Amino acid sequence: MLKKQTVNEDKIQKSKVQAEQSKPQSKDRKMSRGEILKKVFGHLGKYRIFVVFSVLLAAVSVALTLYIPKLIGYAVDEIIGKGAVNFAGIFRILFQIGICTGITALAQWLMNVCNNKMTYQVVQDVRNEAFRKIQILPLKYIDNHPSGEIVSRVIADVDQFADGLLMGFTQLFTGAATIIGTLGFMLSVDVNITFVVVLITPISFFVANFIARKTFAMFRLQSEIRGEQTGLIDEMIGNQKVVQAFGQEEKVTERFDKINEKLGSAYLRATFFSSVTNPATRFINSLVYTGVGIAGAFAVVNGTLTVGQLTSFLSYANQYTKPFNEISGVVTEFQNAVVCAGRIFELIEEIPQPEDAKDAAVLTHVRGHVLAEHVDFSYMPQQNLITDFNLKVMPGQKIAVVGPTGCGKTTLINLLMRFYDVDGGCISVDGKDVREVTRESLRCAYGMVLQETWLKTGTIRENILLGRSDASEEEMIEAAKASYIHNVILRLPNGYDTWVTEDGDGLSQGQKQLLCIARVMLCRPPMLILDEATSSIDTRTEVKIQAAFTKLMEGRTTFIVAHRLSTIREADVILVMKDGKVIEQGNHESLMAADGFYRHLYESQFLRGKDEDK
After folding, report:
1. How far is CA 597 from the centre of its chain?
2. Which of 190, 363, 446, 458 has the most CB atoms within 10 Å of its CB?
3. What angle do CA 419, 423, 425 make, to 5 degrees?
4. The domain 370-613: what is its CATH number?
């Protein structure tokens, strides 16, 4: 006996260690700009062929664009004086300019195709990664982050990232090629004047870099506030009836105005700094152009430069400074894109729920023997919720869980389904620790009807077949009849093919709940979880549903969470929970005879019901 007890203690201690090791830790650290760019380039690596083609096409486009001013210079030099114009030479040069222009246009079009393809492939990959990550994130992350804020990251932030990435690449390749190309052409014309241009250039880099560092933090703040605003909008739209019922429209509007004001302030600060970039770089570029003009004029007077060459040089000076203007013009978009990319990468980098062990077993032929041994759990480390919880459920038993709000009833359901892992102790099904079996097989062993109904956007048929897509038409209709929703469906415009959204589209809360019940009745799982499953159904229909449930529960282990104690009188075992512990256990008669907390709860409901009838 002592040996057996020691083995159990070792098993429980081991499970506590496993729970601590497997508990995911959320990453709160913000990514630096360097880390974000590294991840962006990592995603671009898959499409390097488009990068190579884009660079080559940019080089061709820029080379021909820069060759045109040289041709223009040749054409100017063909105009020797009045009556001394070489028209044949000019026409030949114009023909060359036309060919160069046509090839340049084609190269730019193909380059834009490559940039678009590359950008939106990366964006598609990022969105897919983000959505897949949401599917495997621990429920704790979803519970702790507003749904609107998560939606903002996947939709709005990725859109901003796409715009900045596309604009950045379009300007990056052509701008870099233009700067290098113009320097080469200017060196071929005059080294001294080129030195004047290069001497003033670093000032543009200094100004652009200074502003970029300033705007990065401001755009990060702007993006975070925008996510907060999206979360509030999503929350208010989803609960507009409650807001209006309690007359909170004015307070909600005030709250929105405060967030909107913060967003406006952050936007103005970011835009102010970024808007300084363009005029600052244009001023510096004007200095470059002026320096070239003055130095070139002296060179023409001294006879070391022709008028045509000066014309070409001035054009090159303008071409050389143009990329700096364009890059400064997109610095706002690029900084915003980097910040938005950081927010979506932070979501992608979140630690997912622990994967099933490689040797995880698959639950099959489940009998429904559930055992909880010394279970501890809390949502927050410093706030204990369930402590030293023990439960033994035999196959086919109906277990009712009752108690005051916050006692841990729904938390127990979360642990049974392994939406959360226990902090200590263990829960087993048919003798197997739930952490040692696959989540999919564990959850397939349960059929769950919650108080909060959920329908997916699609047809009534798709919603009922959600848990068992291979069911026949007859089985689906039988399940709908058993849940008393069949006649309601037939009255809909397209019957079972009627399209509904998550809001139900004209279905009452009770009818939506009946659809959820039909979904479970079709699956016929070996174990059931009914969490206030009939809370939104009228009394007459509830009686019929309870009869259907009674038939469905035959031979199936069933956990029933109920506030109306009259609905669980026939349960084999009633667990009375308070402060995360089972304080009473037994059937209805024995608990009433014990004259304890359960009887107090039951009689308070019964007397309240009589008072309401009066």
Report:
1. 45
2. 446
3. 105
4. 3.40.50.300
